[in-house]
Amino acid sequence: MVIAEELAKKQRAISIAQFFEKNKQILGFDSLQKSLIMAVKESVDNSLDACEEAEILPEIEVVLKNLGKDEYYLSVEDNGPGIIRKEIPKIFGQFLYGSKFFSMQQARGQQGIGISAVVLYSQITSGKPITVTSKTKESDVAYQIKMFIDTKENRAAIVSEDVIIVSKEHGLKIEFYMKGKYVKGKQSIIEYLKNSAIVNPYAKIKFTDPDGSVIIFDRVTDKIPVPPKETKPHPMGLEVGDILELAKNTKHKTLTSFLSGEFSKVSNKIAVEICTMTKLDPGMDPSALKLVDAKNILESFKQTKLLPPSSESLSPIGENLIKKGLKNVLGSYKPSFYAIPVSRKPAIYHGNVFIVEAGMVYGGDLPKEEQVSIMRFANKVPLLYQAGACAITKAVSDMDWRKYGFEQKSGAGIPSGPAIVLVHVASTKVPFTSESKEAIAEVPEIIDEIKLALRDLARQIRTFLTKKEIKAKLSEKFFLVQEILPQIALKSANILNKPVPKLEPIITQIMNVVWIDEDIEESKDTVKVTVRVSNFTAEEKKFKLYADLPEGKVLEGSVDSDCKIDSENDSIEWEISIKSLEQKVLKFTLSNVISGTYKESTYYVEGINPVYVVGAEPLPGDWNIEDLKAIIADDNEMEEDENDEL
Amino acid sequence: MVIAEELAKKQRAISIAQFFEKNKQILGFDSLQKSLIMAVKESVDNSLDACEEAEILPEIEVVLKNLGKDEYYLSVEDNGPGIIRKEIPKIFGQFLYGSKFFSMQQARGQQGIGISAVVLYSQITSGKPITVTSKTKESDVAYQIKMFIDTKENRAAIVSEDVIIVSKEHGLKIEFYMKGKYVKGKQSIIEYLKNSAIVNPYAKIKFTDPDGSVIIFDRVTDKIPVPPKETKPHPMGLEVGDILELAKNTKHKTLTSFLSGEFSKVSNKIAVEICTMTKLDPGMDPSALKLVDAKNILESFKQTKLLPPSSESLSPIGENLIKKGLKNVLGSYKPSFYAIPVSRKPAIYHGNVFIVEAGMVYGGDLPKEEQVSIMRFANKVPLLYQAGACAITKAVSDMDWRKYGFEQKSGAGIPSGPAIVLVHVASTKVPFTSESKEAIAEVPEIIDEIKLALRDLARQIRTFLTKKEIKAKLSEKFFLVQEILPQIALKSANILNKPVPKLEPIITQIMNVVWIDEDIEESKDTVKVTVRVSNFTAEEKKFKLYADLPEGKVLEGSVDSDCKIDSENDSIEWEISIKSLEQKVLKFTLSNVISGTYKESTYYVEGINPVYVVGAEPLPGDWNIEDLKAIIADDNEMEEDENDEL
What we know:
24% strand, alpha+beta, seven-stranded mixed β-sheet, globular, 15 helices
């Protein structure tokens, strides 16, 4: 028997760098093609973070050269603030060194691991040092450092250092040698850069591929987004150990200042309230808190009316860019329906605030038989790998999509259908499943939020499909009364040599609806809409018609005179008065619409029984409950099913 | 503009413990139910490793109590060697402390992270210390230590320490308080323990669940597997940086002793050969190796005839336990076909040896419409989470299963069909995607090996299905000639008052085959097989019949006297001489068969044209190529398709 003493002799500690040296795959470096993508991604994400923090419009240049076989040279250069001399060895040569561990604000990098991982992979596979060239505004010269990582010590091993003169005012250039494999397609450097460029439209990224071809992703706006503000942990979702840890390390000297100073949304008043509830001395030293105190504080946080977290610390993608992101992957497919992107309210997991945004397109030439495509983003970084381990995929797979018109075997798994869905999770701390930051962990709070966003999108798709179905059925009738009936009447009359009979009673009997449809004409970013309202009932109808339009689109120009523009609610209102078998033509124009994204308007009617209307919904809250019973009953049923799901 | 100096002020280093404190999800603690499973898993895996290393038959007791709401108490106690006093704080209180970083032998734990992760999660969610009680054989007393992790310093913070007297000779007990949620089902503590018990059949595991119910997974063998031996990295798949790192840290003083001492399968002779090829001085100090030298050494490794890696450092599950593992999840489904488990030869990724084992069952009452179930194991540990990120799932999804009789949309993704597949990857270093060890990274070499194993299994399924089809067609004929024809003949003869006509010529004309089938009778672990050979041809036939039987099954008892047992090839041979329309009955018995797993024998014939035989295959290499052309041509085509896949 091997004895405990002997076993003990084998025990030893290793550095985090040695751990990663033996576990490159945890950092995402598990195949040649993926390793190249990771190297570009970590470098470019860092450049974007640095520029954003320094409020500089990013200009990033990526050059990739094949040196024969599977050896590559990679350089990434930016116009960011640069890094001061003494920080360079630590930032590139030390794992778990960084600026964002405790900052609680949305950033691409969070861990102090990514770029050191590239350095490590580079030195393992090429045996060559990396070169960092940095120029800050404050310094007259640039520093050029060649270095390895000393993995045993988890620190930089500097090979050489030079002072050089460069023309640019500030910026950083990193050069690596590494093994790799350059590929194109769904999981590729170009795909990563393209999707990055979309959600960072103020960045200019130039990429020279190994063939020497240059691809430029130009900026489309000069507006740098408002940098997210730092925040404190929100008490929601914190554990007793977190409270004790914070109390142990705080600089605050009293319990009240600790509570109001270390937590988000805890005012001084609330802090005092909590002291009263827990019967703790407001002036006590927080580091003296005992386990039971911390438990009581947690409990009273729950009973206090805390404001929900604010989203100041976050920087969402926004509706426009979500649509654009979807459009980018569409290729020549022309979806017939763009769901209105959903942006959920800020939510909390374990004290960290997060927001879920999602968009979806449907139909057109998108492949009907294939699985729905899922585009994943976390803190504005596209996620290309480990889809199967991601909370986003999990949320999609857990929903029963069949009731929304999708094919899905036994109501679980990724559904099939002509659709693409995009989900972005923005957080002060995205809970990645590993240091390679490829998938979001299946944190229940996050999955729930994603599901709620998806459900909203899926409902829009269902409404669209239902409308389409109703319209298809009525179109047959429409064709009959508009085209066939008059011809039959005319011919019959001619043959019988009698006057053409009055068709109105027949038409109105067959149709018995007010028919509303529209034509959309697009030129550049302008959309002209022509609305036709036809009264196929036997009586004159008087009602109000509303067009509900996309938020923030300026309504301009040739809107008909007999209407009101309500720019606050982004809608147009018409007073319609229309005789039996009469037709009215209405027009309006939208501007600043992304080409190809505006597919149809939503219309509401008020003051008319909605069962007589095709092409518009009853204005919510308008029609009395009796008439809408059937619709509502049906919808409630669905609603319940859906609530069961969560 | 924020300047570089200001940004630099935010930079700081954190400890690995602080990193994990902020990233519990990386350690697998991302939901309440999963956290409880992780805690049990890490503790039990450690106990199994310790017992195995000390060559002790493991007895492990797990107790889980619900303390109200979502608070739990967990204790895990084993009869292992225990841990000596001074190692306890490091093993439980320090991340990246362990015995297996450099050992290169198969083990469940590898990282020096898992158990500290449980301690960290416990203290965050309960605020309470853990209790470790350890008794080693060498010490008269047991030590009981209560401790936290000081995350800032990544070291233990001891709360109290006691010396106590215990009755057992050696063993370890760990006690935790933590938040959790106890569930049953596919991803549960019971599921993990059950599957662990199957692949570790020499362990006894007792589990007391929160209701107080006791579940015992008793040992089924007293044989401890041969402990895997330590090995060195195999030169295959190493990078130039690895060579340089090894050379820098080696204790060897000359290049030849370095090469033969630090690498697996590099003899002194090969080391000298490599020095000659690279024109390096055999006596040189290896730490003086330059980049170009390391590159040349790598190159000459490739040109040298190195032996493939040995599997001494590995401990596979084995055919028997794979079958048992599959049987365990079968419930009341009775699959109609058990594929013979596949054990691949040792292979290499990045210097680490690994083996892929796989098994599969098919048909019976297994659900036809659902996705094929995949059971994953890594170093004898069942993997319950992150299936979507795992190389095993990837390999299954990448194969086109349609040609093997499965349903699979567009030939990719997890196929649907009545089957369960089990895959085990054993390695001196399993490349997990994260520290939570839930999924194997998609390392190309590993995926290829899994695919080859799966292909072998899938082919067995295809053969089974083809046989079934042929038999079904012939069964109709068989029924006709055996049942219907004699009756018709008899009745016709009676009516016509004539003698019953001779049916032989008609029967042989219709059938024209030698029909071989069997009955299987099972009692306990013994299987009695009765083989019927019926000659439905017009002529006497003489040929050899072989039964190809499972490896290592003792053949005993009532085997017919006119046969030979070839225990080396695990087969029985009969000399058959059978007249037209005669039937022969043969019998044999197998022992040590796991109940329910033996479904049918494989028969081969020699000395007869196989087109006349139903129920047996031609002995490979026996029949001349012309007669088998069709079969082979068809198979080759498939083969090529399959090779394209890899």
